[in-house]
Write a structure and sequence with these properties.
It contains 14 helices and 11 strands. The chain is of the alpha/beta class.
Amino acid sequence: MFSNRITQLFNIQYPIIQAGMVWASGWKLASAVSNAGGLGIIGAGSMYPDVLREHIQQCKKATTKPFAVNLPLLYPDIEKHIQIIIEEKTPIVFTSAGNPKTWTTILKEAGIKVVHVVSSSKFALKAQEAGCDAVVAEGFEAGGHNGREETTTMVLIPAVCNAVSIPVIAAGGIATGRQMLAAMVLGADAVQIGSRFVCTPEASSHLAFKEAIVKAQEGDTMLMMKKTVPVRLLKNKFYEDIAKAESQGADAETLNNLLGRGRAKKGMFEGNLEEGELEIGQVSAIINTIKPAAAIVKEIWEEYCKIKELLKGN
């Protein structure tokens, strides 16, 4: 039986965590990953408060295992989300996109374990000082909203591990057991995987988006919108519009006007592959199948163990 600081902290079987992704990770995906021995996460960033409550309640019915909620701290209804998370006795919360000091103490006083997503050693230290139980160190390769520093996972993980004493979860560019082993060798206690779990039947994202990920090749994603909130996008017409505007020196207001409202929902949830915002990581280049979440957890863990055993002989 595998055991380390993260499996003990979350009471899970494998140190494999499914990222909380907008328009992809509802209760079906979160419960499937948790039932398979990992930690499933509900992505609250695309949910109204009443929808979040429903997903938490449905997840409780679908699994007896621990699960978490990912909560972007810039969310406009953050107070309502926090209240619901506490009322529903959610065991674990992953926070991102904001100052962890704001809510960590309140969540921990409610008996909730708190993890914060960071893109640098500096922010990892701030999360530790705020009382977080662990951090997710997310490298430049990751999909969705990303750090401006452009520090890759290979560099970020050892740097963060050297900076903090709390457990470190590696994220960004991880989809296989081999990649998981590399992250663990660099000092991580677990991995957080997003893009791979989008390509599952349980993910709520549109089938057309999943199929576009499967077709993606190296170089088909790019970090954009650095003047506002940096986000890694799959290249399409919307990406081209943003790239053109940025090349012409567009300011933040112009870029926000181009983004408009509901652009991510249009792309990832409704399947508009031309006008929608398609957030996905670089690792999409090596994802070539859509398969159940439980099969992915099993595949990653078995490959991790196999390669680890093979390396013992070298």
